[in-house]
Amino acid sequence: MTLTWPSPGKLNLFLYINSYRHDGYHEIQTLYQFLRYGDKITITNRLDNQLNLLSKISGVKSKDNLILRAARLLQKYCYNVLHCKKKLGADISFKKYLPIGGGVGGGSSNAATTLIALNEHWGTKISDSILAKIGKIIGADVPVFVKGYSCFAEGIGEILTPILLKENWYLVANNGIKISTKKIFSDPLLKRNSKKQTLNVLLLSKYSNDCELTVRRNFYEVDRLISWLLKYSPSRLTGTGSCVFSEFKTKYDAIKVLNNSPLWLHGFVAQGTNESPLHKFRALATNMFYK
């Protein structure tokens, strides 16, 4: 069977860095919401054990692509832990719409979609909790996409509290540059001492991103982007990447600003959603696999 699965983007509506840990990670508090916009991953079952990634990203070796890494980890779990006897293979292709290195979760989302989709294609019936643990091996953001709901994240991002948020419209913009998460978190001037607050306090406070000043200082393109968008709506960085988002009450308002933007600004308009489009699609796909 062949199906094309959604791999949605996300926004960090706020992001605070509380401290640096001796293991190299940072303690954070952040608020995630999904977008009704993202990449597409197409999976076709195979009759053997081969895992073939048919699409490529310039500069990224196939073995390093998070899609293939996720597929191999799941296959390994099925054989070594579940002792599956049947052949578990797939041909996988993708179309990228989310900016790479943009802070909208493209790679982590791709990995999560691969785990959830292959679990359905292979009929292995692994729980989301186990899939999230497998995903955490790949990256701290992956469990968020596996769980599939808007949430407040603490610790290194692994402590998740579900939350219902207003589903605003967003203009998500970038300048086409890629920003390394490692580069931002290793910057000596990065703010790392935000006081830990309760969720209720944070929700009532003005939202911000502790990475924003560091990114603006190191990347003029992002600084220019934020400065331009702030003329029209509250705007800030998402994650550690190059994407900036502006909040709007209606789709019309967001599109109006995008249509009047300068040529150097690239972007898209999407609505926030509390339930991942991936999970909505899975509910439909499950009926196809098990009817």
From TrEMBL:
Gene3D superfamilies: 3.30.230.10, GHMP kinase, C-terminal domain (3.30.70.890)
Keywords for this protein: ATP-binding, Isoprene biosynthesis, Kinase, Nucleotide-binding, Transferase
GO biological process, one term: terpenoid biosynthetic process
UniProt keyword ATP-binding, yes or no: yes
Pfam families: GHMP_kinases_C, GHMP_kinases_N
A molecular function GO annotation: ATP binding
Pathway: Isoprenoid biosynthesis; isopentenyl diphosphate biosynthesis via DXP pathway; isopentenyl diphosphate from 1-deoxy-D-xylulose 5-phosphate: step 3/6
E.C. number: 2.7.1.148
Binding site for ATP: P99, I100, G101, G102, G103, V104, G105, G106, G107, S108, S109
InterPro entries: GHMP_kinase_C_dom, GHMP_kinase_C_sf, GHMP_kinase_N_dom, IspE, Ribosomal_Su5_D2-typ_SF, Ribsml_uS5_D2-typ_fold_subgr
Catalytic activity of the protein: 4-CDP-2-C-methyl-D-erythritol + ATP = 4-CDP-2-C-methyl-D-erythritol 2-phosphate + ADP + H(+)
Domain called GHMP kinase C-terminal: residue spans: 207-259
Main enzyme class: transferase
Keyword Ubl conjugation: no
Annotated GHMP kinase N-terminal domain residues: 65-148
Active site per database record: K10, D141
Complex formation: Homodimer.
Role description: Catalyzes the phosphorylation of the position 2 hydroxy group of 4-diphosphocytidyl-2C-methyl-D-erythritol.
Family the UniProt entry places it in: Belongs to the GHMP kinase family. IspE subfamily.
Protein name: 4-diphosphocytidyl-2-C-methyl-D-erythritol kinase
Organism of provenance: Candidatus Providencia siddallii
Lineage: Bacteria, Pseudomonadati, Pseudomonadota, Gammaproteobacteria, Enterobacterales
